[in-house]
Design a protein that fits this description.
It is a single chain. By secondary structure, the chain is an alpha+beta fold. It has 9 helices and 8 strands. It starts with 6 loop residues before the first strand and ends in a 19-residue tail after the last helix.
Amino acid sequence: MQDTDTKITVSSINDISSYNLERIISIKGTIENMSKAEAIISEKLRQSYESDLQSMAPQSMFPGLHPIAMMSTAGMGFPRGAAPPSLMGSVPPYSGLYPPPITMTPQPLEETTYLYIPNIAVGAIIGTKGSHIRNIIRFSGASVKIATSEGQGAASHQEERKVTIFGTAESQWKAQYLIFEKMREEGFAQGDEVRLTVEILVPATQVGRIIGKGGQNVRELQRATSSIIKLPEQGASSGDEVTVHIIGTFYAVQSAQRRIRAMVSQVPGGRPPRGGPLREKRDQ
């Protein structure tokens, strides 16, 4: 490599087999020059890895979600239901052929989501002495809290328990995935699919943007995501934020969440709402 005054060779592709899935890069030169060459090669591999991820992942269905988050659950068995064919067919589990990308990026924005599960499923989600919910928190990196039965409040949710999930988009994907999957394992599927209700908060000023003229936008969202989306009528709420109810399978509610969050973050001629695409709101 002329830029580093080193000799670089790559092992033949013919050496790859089921027992050896890697190619070897050899660098010869002074220690200082080899260090420079290694840095350049690592950067090239990182760029290639990022490009491959972007081309494989259906970003249009899950805007704002990094493909690595989706791949992190690929080897765990997807929840049954309407999984995007391109995701199921083309995104393999992380193979280890390339190192995970190391990039200096801004701190990811954190979001709050409320997920409702049947009261009889609470024990399964918590696990023996809290073991399962601790695993969900550890794997996802999100804060996951299940409300007490006394603190439910709304009559419509008396037979359900509210789960508050706080974390980045990637953490939300993982935590919600694990909850949906545990529900399926415990037999709470309706047919072959688990359908749950998810709530997110959006600025009241953005309700019209989500509904669209004559309800056009929300109908298209429901069609594209295969979910049921319920919003209050525009102007019906006097608060700064309103609740959007999303009902569906894991992939349906994930796609709807990501699309709605993307819509409300794109404020014409201005900045996104304070605190990111959605303002944080935690239970008191």
